[in-house]
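Inputs:
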Amino acid sequence: MSIIDFLVPPSEACLRSGPHDKIVLSSRVRLARNLRTVPFPSHSKKAERIKAFETLMPAVKSLTLLGEEIFAESMDKLPALDKQVLVERHLISREHAAKNAGSGIVLNREENVCVMVNEEDHLRIQALRPGLQLRQAWTAIDAVDTALQEKVEFAFSERYGFLTACPTNLGTGIRVSAMLHLPGLVLAEQINQIIQAVNKLGLAVRGLYGEGTEALGNVFQVSNQMTLGEPENDIVERINKVLLQIIEHEENARLSQMEKKPAVLLNHIGRAYGVLANSWSISSKEAMNLISFLRLGVDLGVFGKTPKSLTDELFLRSQPAHLQLAHPLREKLGSDERDLFRAQMLRERTSLIPNPDPQALLGRREEGSPE
Amino acid sequence: MVCQFCKLKEASVHVTEIADNKVKKVDACAACAKEKNYNDPAAFAIADHLLGLGAAQKMEEASEAVGALSCDQCGYTQADFKKSGRLGCAHCYDIFSDGLDSVLKTMHKDIRHRGKVPAGMQSAMQSALEGAHRLQSLNRALQAAIAQEDFESAAQWRDAIKAFKASE
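Outputs:
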């Protein structure tokens, strides 16, 4: 079975919901682990990498925690398109997508535990949850890690904890992160202040696909940087606290825009709808930024009963690999052809969304304000 | 551009050499450049980029402290560490530990692990922790005795500490 057949379609993937998912798209906790006796993947010879692969793949595959139905494959068996789809679903890193023989992936049926074998470390095990569910993700991946420790011996030192290829991951090997949709803070021009404040707390703010990527569609990723010197729980709790505050700021920014500048807000949302419903060629960057406003409109009730899963689906389907996958020929599209096909897909799907209703926004505003 | 030596990998090191009034251009992949001894001056910046400002300097100090060490298990050298900001294997953390602490201080909350411990290691970690506590309390008693100028007790505490360290 190919990974494309294994993954649920975008329409289903976007139905997943969790706490605070108007603002927090997803939560993730990943742990970096290495075998004690084999050099780290970045420095190992091919034979050593294959040895690590052959030790780890069966160990991960046999975990009862992952359930019976899993997808496990060597990276060289995956076509480039399939790898890119996995990146767009945030299941593997862009770095891992570039890997071939000697690296692998294991994914469970629920698509909420994904293991990368021989990425930068021998193992990158990650748990994903929709909405703000960092604690749940940590509990889940902690259990997977404990179960794995019964099967293989990890590199661990009493002094430094779990040993990793890069000293920035040393100790707990934990990276706790959440993907946030923050159009309110961007419109209110408060986003830079927030990013600076979050940075001061030792947390990183990145774009949609992690390190070194742009914050397309007003989507930001917040994660811890320090991994050594404090317990996992403390790290999870601190980020959780910071995220709850960011959520509050985003909600306030949205409310104050509705209060003070409803026309500006409606203008953004209405134009986004207009362009998405009527364009004949659109780049992924423009599409993502417009879909962001569409999603904001849905959150604010401007589009009636349109579910936010629909806008999330548009967002996912606008990505290059997903677009190509949906194309009848599945051939590699040039970027011009892709822009045409993207516009067509967006036109068809936005036709399911009613025209924006300004009263929903203005009416709500009057209700809330004293006579 | 393909490496002119192995003609397989992408060339990432480009050097212009002037020797005997002749200009010679070299385009090599990282592996061949290393083999032929063409240094890439840009490579130094990688560690800086990875670890934040000041890390490269710390790393330099660190590598001076460890001298020309290399890992006896995986062959990783201090130059590799400096260049990539990464280590080669688990054993490297023992080999390079002298210089490593100052690097770790710049990037982490503390340089001691306080998180999850593998089941098999828990009893060892516990006794190490208890040992550290015991030593701390002995030291506190010694300092208190000195402060009170109770040198007889102080001598006893000092011997107790000595004995404890010897038994560890």
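Remarks. The CA atoms of residues 317 and 323 of chain A lie 6 Å apart. The first helix of chain A runs from residue 3 to 6.
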